[in-house]
Amino acid sequence: MCDKLKKIKTAIFISGRGSNMNALIEKSRNKMFPASVDLILSNNSKAEGLLLENANNIKSYFFSKNEFEILAQKILLEEKIELICLAGFIQILSKKFIQNWQNRLINIHPSYLPNFKGLNAQKQAILAKATYSGCTVHYVSSKIDGGEIILQKKVYLSDNEDFESLSKKILKEEHILYPKALEITVNKILNNII
After folding, report:
1. Which of 43, 115, 156, 178 has CA atoms 20 to 30 A from the CA of 135?
2. How many alpha carbons fall within 13 Å on the CB side of residue 30?
3. pTM more than 0.85
């Protein structure tokens, strides 16, 4: 009988609907995928993703923004979490928290970085009359959307692109890209590359 595949215990931080969270959970159900989703943390008690998560039988907690980092760190250690994925998580984490999770904290951003950092990236792309935007998964650093890039995908804008249509096109690609980037990151951890 072969050994059971070692899975890296992963937490997901959300603030909203949790569609990327769902994409990660779905992929983690594959026996050959090297990560498991063991914990969902939110800084928004009304996050739709918390309702979705209940159906998946994954532990979830809400902490207010003021106490989020202290309580999150405590539960992450208690649950022996090895990696964190930010998925629509709207809160700037402190340098100390980021350092504690260096190379084990990743984020997805709805633009082809380094273009259109920060909030409303899709709107920024439309206002700039960009020919393309996209999505990027990157390590979190103290510079907003400035960490090392893991994977990216370009999305081209049509002539009559608006915020909603561009957001949908990018989100579709995010759901494909994020699980791939998580797998790359986990394999680096398992092989002691990071």
Report:
1. 43
2. 11
3. yes
